[in-house]
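Re: folding output
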Amino acid sequence: MPGLTVTRFTAAAASVAACAATLLVASSSPVEAVPGLAGRSYVSVSVTPAPIPGGGPLRIAFAEKDRVSLSAGCNRMIGTVTAKGDRLVFSQLASTKMACPPPRDHADGWAVDFAKQSPSYRLVGPGLTLSTPTTTVLLREDSA
């Protein structure tokens, strides 16, 4: 019976080694939290039905993996974003604390409210559309 113990141990060891190798390969390859958007930046060209307070624009940049930064014309917010189906789920947003004059002083609140609604997204070429039940933002890719 000692052979069975060694065989089971060898099989178990092989299984553990295979799992570890799979984890190493999976963790070393880049993962996009939002497919098609990593490494790209966008600027709004229209917001309907009402404009961003102060006129915006909404700027949003999708860094590697799940990192995002956005601004609606006042402070810059950074955090994480993931895709859940066709929706963007923003979390852990932190913001700079500049005091912006009216009407831009309401731009940050607009951006936070928009992000909290987990807007749906649609990517077509250089265009990105973000929509909530009350607001639609059309953005174009920004190469700057």
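--- second protein (sequence, then structure) ---
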Amino acid sequence: MDIDVVLTPADIERVSKASEFTGLAVVFDVLRATSTMITALHNGVKSIIPIATIKEALELKKNFPDALLGGERNGLRISAKISGGVDFDLGNSPREFVKEKVDGKTVVITTTNGTIAIKTAMKFESGVISSFLNLSATARYIIRSNPKKLTIICSGTRDKASLEDIIAAGALINKLNEIQTDLSDSAFVARDFYLYNKNNLANVVRRSANAKRLLSNPELSNDVGFCLQLDLFNFVAIIKDGKILKGE
């Protein structure tokens, strides 16, 4: 299996212009989009529709009037002031997506980086989203699927790389060590970064720009610890037909 890691949003743009999208894509946005979506699926969300822009989300809501609107800009729930008149139902905190609010619902969601990365992953033959919350389930899915090529997309922070996504990508690669792999240079960087820090993951991630921003906000600070829980859930989150669905 050939494994490549897309380390930055600039690389996402490069990949999105590629002529070939072969194999399986995995998207990480640990703090917080993919962690939030996986939590939402665990709590009964029927499907998640990731959208790149607020305008597109509002347009799609017209076709799915019962859907919940979720997402963030600059880390905060999208307000009427930002959207032009509509307060979104949910932000981008996994702790908001409780069963009482989301069970049986469709969620239309837009985030600063994560949903853009997921839109790129949709161009591949197949795709999943992942996080620390379901890392082992994702690894098992990849091993079962045995794609010839695996592309791991780190969503990043605005236009920069994000430490937490890279270390999660490395952790996933390390879990694939039972199969024969051929790593790109960026995949080596991610795996070795994880191996160097694996005994101190929580403290390392808390030094990331995203974590510092969240920890500085009392309403969002608990999201960091939540998103760093390893294998809290035992299912894979599949990208299919423009939606994210709960798999096995």
